[in-house]
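dumping this here so i dont lose it
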C-alpha cells in the first residue's frame, strides 16, 4: 500500500477531501460573518497543523501548497497559535479605507500600512496580534454595523471618527476601536 504526504494511504487522503468537501457545502449556507469566522478557524487550524508537521520533518502538504498560493501565511506565533495570513492584511487596509472614509481622510497606502502593522507585531500583545489576524471578521462586522445604522447615528459617528482620527497618535487605534464597537453592537 502506498503512503501519501499525510503519512496515510491515498484512500485516507480521499476521505479527508470528502470530509472537507462536505464542510464546504455547509459553509455556503452560513451568513457572511459566520462564514468568515469559520474560514478564519479553518485557516488557523490547517496552518498550525502544517507548521507542526514541517517542524517534525514532514514534507509540505500538497493541499497546503494550494491554500498557500491563494492565501499565504505571513507569520505564525507558535506560543499563541495565532496565524496571520495575507488576506488579514488586505482586510485591515480595507477597514482603514472604510473608517477613515467616514472622516474624509485618505488612508495610508496599503503596502506601507501592511509593512507598518507587521513591524508593530514585534512588540504587540497577544490581543493585538489576534485582532490583526481577525481583520477580515472585523471588516465584515464593521460593514454590517454601518449598513444597519440610521442616517442620524451615522452622521454622529462620522463626527466622532473625524475628531478621533485628527487627534490620534496612531490612526490604527481608531480603526480597531470601530471594529470593537461594531462587533459589540452586532453581538449585543
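and the seq i came up w/
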Amino acid at each position: 500500500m502506498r503512503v501519501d504526504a499525510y503519512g496515510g494511504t491515498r484512500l485516507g487522503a480521499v476521505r479527508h477531501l470528502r470530509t472537507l468537501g462536505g464542510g464546504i457545502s455547509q459553509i455556503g449556507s452560513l451568513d457572511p460573518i459566520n462564514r468568515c469566522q469559520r474560514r478564519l478557524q479553518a485557516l488557523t487550524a490547517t496552518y498550525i497543523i502544517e507548521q507542526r508537521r514541517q517542524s517534525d520533518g514532514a514534507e509540505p502538504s500538497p493541499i497546503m501548497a494550494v491554500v498557500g498560493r491563494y492565501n499565504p501565511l505571513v507569520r505564525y506565533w507558535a506560543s499563541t497559535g495565532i496565524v496571520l495570513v495575507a488576506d488579514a492584511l488586505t482586510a485591515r487596509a480595507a477597514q482603514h479605507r472604510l473608517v477613515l472614509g467616514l472622516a474624509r481622510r485618505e488612508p495610508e497606502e496599503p503596502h506601507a500600512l501592511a509593512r507598518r502593522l507587521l513591524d508593530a507585531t514585534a512588540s504587540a500583545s497577544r490581543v493585538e496580534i489576534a485582532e490583526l489576524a481577525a481583520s477580515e471578521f472585523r471588516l465584515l462586522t464593521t460593514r454590517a454595523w454601518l449598513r444597519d445604522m440610521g442616517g442620524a447615528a451615522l452622521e454622529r459617528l462620522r463626527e466622532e471618527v473625524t475628531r478621533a482620527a485628527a487627534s490620534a497618535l496612531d490612526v490604527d487605534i481608531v480603526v480597531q476601536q470601530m471594529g470593537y464597537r461594531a462587533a459589540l453592537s452586532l453581538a449585543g
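Strands lie at 73-77, 82-85.
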